[in-house]
Amino acid sequence: TPRLTLRVHPADVPQLEACGHPLLEQLAALGQAQIVGDPQISRGGCVIDTIHGTIDARIETQIDRIIEELTD
Fold this sequence. Notes:
Helices cover 39% and strands 26% of the residues. It has 72 residues and is α+β, with helices and mostly antiparallel strands. The protein has a 4-stranded mixed sheet, with helices on one face.
């Protein structure tokens, strides 16, 4: 079981694999890592799943957070 999974839009996977070997090497330093395509992730965004939790780096999530902070 991977310790870290980087979920991206399926169309983004080949680009990451083509230029992502240094990225995978850096991720591998943290333990087992993998990049997987997830159609629920918008292009250019990513969600990182670790054994400690999830980091949602999707653009729409960041925009929602900004709106939330501005309207509170």
